[in-house]
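seq/struct pair 1
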Amino acid sequence: MSGAAPSGATQHPGSDHPWLPDLNWAPVAPFWAAAREQRLVFPRCGRCGRFQWYPQDMCPDCRVMAFEWAEVSPSGYVFSHTTLRRSFVPHFDNLLPLEIGLIKFVHAPGVTLVTNVLDTPAGGVHIDAEVTIVFPEVAPGVNLPMARLC
């Protein structure tokens, strides 16, 4: 695997994260703008109210093409998790072991956010653990949503 950034990502020298999101990519720009303000938002259908993550053009429930970005509580729970112990990507070795969680939100049904779980020893995450999403700045002007155990 090469060290090139995947599509939709950019590399930032001096960051602990070699691949960071393209903050200006239209489908998710409102998400990243809210993250810079320490807020969690997800697209919600303007007709039926269904939350959708990752953004799509059309609501899978009512087939309307009218989403709005809605702020939700940063409180969630661990649906699933894994511990990354071996890096296949250059520059990630210093982050290992890395706890990765699939986080669900009571106030945003249907949304699952894949993110890091901060300040947790390897194996310290468990299913249904309560988390709060925080937004550390990982590069100038780039705040990534990450989970912290409550």
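seq/struct pair 2
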Amino acid sequence: MFKPVDAQNFLADAFAPWVQALDLTVDEVDPAGHVVLSMPVTDAVARMGGIVCGQALATLADTTMVLCTAAHFGKPRDVATTNLDTQFLNAGRGSHIRCSGRITRAGRALIFAQAELVALPDMRPVASASATFFVPEEKAR
């Protein structure tokens, strides 16, 4: 079973330094492929007026959905984002951005996922995203 501590370790060990610089925290993981991450709103991700930049929001959504695939499999697996569609709904302001992701369909070679991003503490919707991931065959060891 893939737990929040496993997901946090996966983030630290397998993701690029610029993703790690977002200071993401794994808040929840469940075996059905539902994952919740949060990102603090800092000067590094905010632009004028304290609004979180779209690049950070899209990265948070994609990273959350990658972790959803790991929760689905019960362990990290190689996946490749083949499509990421992000709709920005409102300015992202507040203390944190919370991203809740889930698997919507999982096949042998493709996994489809969705994510919803809200600003904390007021829970205002910030963005919505959907992604498709290619899952290469596991190599025999």
